[in-house]
Amino acid sequence: MTNSHQEYDFVLVGGGLQAGLLALAIDHHNPTANVLILEKNKCLFGNHTWSFHRSDISCEWSWISQLSITQWPGYTVHFPGINRIVELPYCSVSSDQFRKTIKRLSINSDRLRVQTEAEVNEVETHCVRTSKGEFLGKTIVDCRGKTTGGLSGVGYQKFLGLELILGEDWPDLLPTIMEANLDQNDGYRFLYVLPFEPRRILIEDTFFSESSLIDQDQSAKAIESYLENRRVSRWQVIRREQGCLPMPFTSTCQPVTSNQLTGGYAGGWFHAATGFSFALAARFADVVASSESDLIGRNVSRLAEKNRFQRTFARFLNRLLFHLVPPSCRHEIFRRFYTKLPDDAIQRFYAHAFTKTDAVRILFGLPPSSLTPIKFFQSFKAAICRA
Ligand SMILES: Cc1cc2nc3c(=O)[nH]c(=O)nc-3n(C[C@H](O)[C@H](O)[C@H](O)COP(=O)(O)OP(=O)(O)OC[C@H]3O[C@@H](n4cnc5c(N)ncnc54)[C@H](O)[C@@H]3O)c2cc1C
User: Fold this and answer.
1) Residue 251's closest CA among 293, 309, 329?
2) Which residues make Cβ contacts (< 8 Å) with residue 225, sequence separation at least 6?
3) Which of 47, 49, 50 to mutate to test the pocket of ligand 1 (most atoms within 8 A of CB)?
4) Does residue 67 register a pLDDT over 50?
5) Which of 32, 130, 246, 286 has its CA 20 to 30 A from that of 79?
């Protein structure tokens, strides 16, 4: 039961990835704090698969080890003429795995409360208004997820994912992060495969596209024909996942002025060029949970400042990808990325910790022939000015 007259140390608005990571980090750094998660749906965490590189996570964040995570020693990428193994440990956590961890935490601690079916209508500095009443908090973190509000110009990363039980063993032990040997329609398109067990896999048909709409039948057919090419003749769909994420060209980090904070996607705590949230949401969670209450705003601002270059450059890459390069050439950028960059630079890129030298390496040799250098540099300047 939640108590609307009690003042919680933390009220987390929206029960998705960011709220889950915050709950774990607070439990570790500040175990006497009372935490309330408010979620509009019937259960927390929706229907997602969140992947990340092991190296995105600092070894100092021992609180993440409470999460049950699937891990592989590396992964492969495939483009015309290129098959590469990237030897960077790769991890994945599902909504189910997250739900079990938070359930365990709330059973073991009476300091974590979850209120589902509570749609939040208004968030103030110390008060949240929901369909189920008002809740008070010393620190309120808005984690309501994606929004297109305030984004000037976006492309989309969209996908249909099918989790399957196979009649035969899957031939690969490692995930395939990009299988780009397929028709490049609707922008850059690739298949993404996570082999959880020899006969249980997730396949996603993914697009970096101008449009947020996805043709589900066409994607299901592409997955089917890939399975047949990999000599799998029998399978059963056990879960369907669909998503679409706006990928911004300009900065969206909310200014931090008080202990009313915006976390997760809505606060700009995601990698704009990959769409992955885990690394930055975990960083945000660690800073919020480990700071003295009156220093949270200041420390979050410092973290945002520390990430400024990476944030700006990632958004510039989106501008390049969606705005400057014709959709039919889009895959060349990814092909080049995986052809030219060594594992350590790929690691820094995904961890949102890339250096200026890495940025030059990513751009070197670009733009593709269809883009004039002058347009390219004008756009780079515009991206920097707006960040
Ligand atoms: C194709 C694709 C692939 C992706 N792959 C990855 C990946 O591999 N790794 C990764 O890290 N990220 C990935 N992402 C991105 C990731 O899913 C999101 O960016 C991430 O979930 C954002 O976390 P969040 O906590 O901000 O929002 P969410 O996880 O979306 O959580 C927001 C929560 O707030 C709730 N909510 C919303 N409004 C209200 C309200 N008014 N009142 C109460 N509750 C509310 C929602 O129901 C939801 O539960 C992918 C996205 C896409 C589209």
Assistant:
1) 309
2) none
3) 50
4) yes
5) 246
d(CA 49, CA 303): 26
Cα of 94 vs centre of ligand 1, distance in Å, is 12
Q: Which domains does the chain have, with CATH numbers?
A: 7-70+90-149+249-306 (3.50.50.60), 154-247 (3.30.70), 308-386 (no CATH)
* Residue 6 CA to ligand 1 centre (angstroms): 28
Write down the pLDDT at residue 108.
Answer: 85
Each residue's pLDDT tens digit, 223-271:
999 999 999 999 999 999 999 999 988 765 554 555 569 999 999 999 9
Q: What is the pLDDT of residues 315-344, one digit of tens each?
A: 999 988 888 888 888 888 899 899 989 999
Alpha-carbon distance of 37 to 2, in angstroms, equals 10
Q: Give the residue from 368, 360, 337 showing the smallest Cα distance to 350.
A: 337
Q: Residue 380: what pLDDT?
A: 56
Q: What distance in Å separates the CA atoms of residue 75 and residue 78, rounded to the nearest whole number? A: 10
ipTM of the complex: 0.98
Answer whether residue 305 shows pLDDT above 60: yes
User: Which residue ranges have their beta carbon within 6 Å of ligand 1?
Assistant: 14-18, 38-41, 46, 48, 50-52, 119-120, 143-146, 157, 159, 206, 243-245, 264-266, 270, 275-278, 281
* Residue having the nearest C-alpha atom to atom 38 of ligand 1: 144
